[in-house]
Amino acid sequence: MHEPPTHETRSDLTALPATPLVDAVVDLIRPVEAPSVFHHSIRSYLFARLAADRTGLAVGRDYDDDLLFAACAMHDLGVASDGPHNQRFEVEGADRAAEFLVARGRSTADADQVWQAIALHTSPGIAERRGTLCVLVRQGVALDFGGPLGSDHLDAVTDQEAEALHTAYPRLDMIRSLTDAIVAQAAKNPKNAARYTIPGEFLREREDFGRTRMEHACRASRWDD
Length: 225
Known about the structure:
This protein is an all-alpha fold. The protein has a domain at 18-171: Hypothetical protein af1432 (Orthogonal Bundle). It is built from ten helices and no strands.
């Protein structure tokens, strides 16, 4: 497995915030997510930070960098191998992330911001109305999908920037791996796969067609997966 560089050897573009909370989040998610999903989670943060720069948003003034990292890095915690898997994955991940933050001394208001950003990251048109953190998480995730989720800033990411992010955190067939994880989680409980939700439709498309529409669309993504 490719190990990401340490804080000390990363360039600024791929450096993570050097804070205890960030280290704790990484320690939480790395052992329980597939390497491809872990890399996707970290890249989503790095892409979200690029989106913030493109729109003139500043750390400390417009958003809290630790909360942005926490929300991006834990946005797929609902498919982690150690989860209860008894709610749709977005809500399960949001609940786990909020509990994690409160246990580490963040306020309930901070935890609620992260909860919303994670719970709504698959909800275009809603996430964008719930504040800066929700917008940036949605954009970071969309950028890492390379086009099919409709990112506003895909053309602004240079080839050099994308190469740096993908060198530090390779894709490792992320689309298939993440879809596998969402479908497996959705299949464990009918409450996880309500109709017209992402997990519900992914499960039904896999059962009916062997592949989801998202997987098909991502064949034409900028990142070629």
